[in-house]
Amino acid sequence: MHGTRSWNSVAALALCAALSLGAAACGGDRAGDETAAGTVTDAISVTDVKLGKGIDANMRITDETDDFAPMDRIHAVVSTTGTAASATLTARWTFEDGQVVDETTQSIAPTGPANTEFHISQANGLPPGNYRVTILLNGTEVETEEFEVKRP
After folding, report:
1. Is residue 44 packed enough to be buried (19+ CB in 10 Å), middle (13-18) or exposed (0-12)?
2. How do residues 95-106 score in pLDDT, each as one tens digit?
3. Is 103 in contact with 85 (CB distance < 8 Å)?
């Protein structure tokens, strides 16, 4: 009997080793960011939204604020992380009563951290009041920032 147990133990170890190698070869040991075929799946998220009066060459806000004058150009910079072969970001700008002032969509294909810039302004100035910019990622609302346009 002792010989049988020893053989069973060896067979069990061999089977476990074979299964482990097979799982690793098929992608079973991956963190979920790749499929069994080895193609990268989309994994992107919005990490931050900042408002301001200016942006730099790297699409970062240079004069961060949530108070604006009617003639200001209002920038929203959306920071994302992750990788996507194709994704869409939308900035929906609304006035106090929910009236849509502007809506812009941009296609992005980030391969890591990225910034995307949106902006609004009007030739005759934005009416004073409370506003909101809602950011949508692939059609789903993910972030909202409120700001105010004040009389000079």
Report:
1. buried
2. 998 999 999 999
3. no
**3-class SS letters over the chain:** CHHHHHHHHHHHHHHHHHHHHHHHHCCCCCCCCECCCCCECCEEEEEEEEEECCECCCCCECCECCEECCCCCEEEEEEEEEECCCEEEEEEEEECCCCEEEEEEEEECCECCEEEEEEECCCCCCCCEEEEEEEEECCEEEEEEEEEECCC
- Burial pattern 67-96, b for ≥16 Cβ within 10 A else e, equals ebebebebbbbbbbebbbeebebbbbbbee
Distances (CA, A) of 111 to 1, 40, 42, 55, 107: 59, 11, 10, 22, 13
Per-residue model confidence as pLDDT tens digits over 8-60: 443 443 433 333 333 333 333 333 333 333 344 579 999 999 999 999 999 99
What pTM does this model have?
0.72
Which tokens belong to 91?
């900035």
Residue carrying the six token digits 């147990």: 5
